[in-house]
Specification:
7 strands, Rossmann fold, alpha/beta
Length: about 260
């Protein structure tokens, strides 16, 4: 059977995602990667704060629903950057990623790992998980829409199960500037070429469209990894009460999304 243009486009996309893990494409000598705009310390501090807010939201839901040691799927797992934050929440974590190279870099043997496509997670049964975490995935697949991935996540969730995602917003001023800069100066940061932040409401709408209930999102931070750490700490402290502000949350650096599979 001949492949459609969309199928060929999708397979090419998966190849690009796998290839990204094999090569460091960051232009380290470019002036935009100088200490004026980037440092590992700034990036680590920003990432830690955002992920801690992400985990707090998951913990909040676990407590509300009296869930202890839930069976959790991380899709995609990537190189395991989220694992140190998620492992304390459960001893029953399963990971899937399209890249075998990424999964091989995870040294923690407590996680069950699978190589596979998130759109077709045939190795998992319907209703197998209490929680599905799709962290920093959707901004890589803007050209393909979200529904098919969301529906597959919904399939593997048990009735009443919980969906979480963690994504950057294009409405944050620094993110918008970086998006414009990429088109002017090229891909100096070494991202996958077609990845991009997006408007948070887009994913919230997809969750609702695909049958999730209690759908919503909140900000994790209004700072940015380009900001000096002392300034970022001030912003994060001052804006902490505003993480769920109805309008302001759209302009976050990263947002955490939630949806619940309606009980059958």
């Amino acid at each position: 059977m001949k492949q459609s243009c969309e199928e060929k486009k999708y397979e090419a996309k998966l190849r690009r995602e796998k290839e990204w893990y094999r090569h460091d494409t960051v232009q380290k000598g470019h002036w935009l990667n100088s200490r004026l705009f980037y440092s590992p310390k700034r990036h680590a501090a920003s990432a830690n704060f955002c992920r801690m807010q992400f985990v707090r939201r998951i913990q909040e839901v676990l407590e509300q629903h009296h869930l202890t040691d839930p069976r959790m799927l991380i899709a995609p797992t990537g190189s395991g950057y989220d694992l140190p934050y998620l492992l304390p929440l459960s001893r029953r974590i399963v990971g899937i990623d399209i890249s075998a190279v990424a999964l091989e870099s995870i040294r923690d043997n407590s996680i069950e790992k699978h190589v596979g496509d998130i759109k077709h997670m045939d190795m998992f049964q319907e209703g197998e998980f209490d929680i599905v975490v799709m962290s920093q995935f959707f901004h890589h697949f803007l050209d393909f829409g979200f529904d098919e991935f969301v529906l597959e996540a919904r399939r593997v969730l048990q009735s009443g199960g919980h969906f979480f995602s963690f994504e950057p917003s294009i409405l944050h001023p620094f993110a918008a500037a970086a998006w414009c800069g990429k088109r002017i100066f090229g891909n100096v940061s070494g991202c996958v070429e077609d990845e991009s932040p997006f408007c948070p409401q887009r994913l919230a709408n997809a969750l609702t469209r695909c049958g999730f209930v209690d759908v919503g999102f909140s900000a994790t931070s209004y700072s940015h990894h380009c900001m000096p750490v002392p300034l970022a700490r001030i912003i994060n402290t001052v804006t902490r009460p505003l993480l769920r502000a109805p309008l302001l949350k759209h302009f976050a650096y990263y947002c955490v999304f939630y949806g619940r599979k309606s009980p059958s």
